[in-house]
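Before relying on records like the one below, remember that each one covers exactly one chain. Contacts with other chains, cofactors or solvent are not represented anywhere in the record.
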Amino acid sequence: MQVNQPKEGGAEHNAAMHHRQHPPFDTPEKRCNKCDEFWPADTEFFYRQAGRPDGLGSICKACYAETPSVINRNAGKKKRADVASSWELLFQGEVTHAR
């Protein structure tokens, strides 16, 4: 007679499948002065600013991108894909692309 023993292997017996990685709770956070949201205090969310005690700027990167000075600075710039190469400009009238 065979005893019902759990089979080895499989997801239900794999300890790694039951382990969930939680974000670390000791990650320092910083409040953005513009949106008043708390973000992780690192260079992914804040620009570096060497003169500040923590080395990070006072507003997050998302809020910084929305400031009028940055918007005006980037308004006249064309995206790289929109700019024709010098080769395309040289033969502008002669080149026909396959469609």
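Residues 32 and 59 are 5 Å apart (CA to CA).
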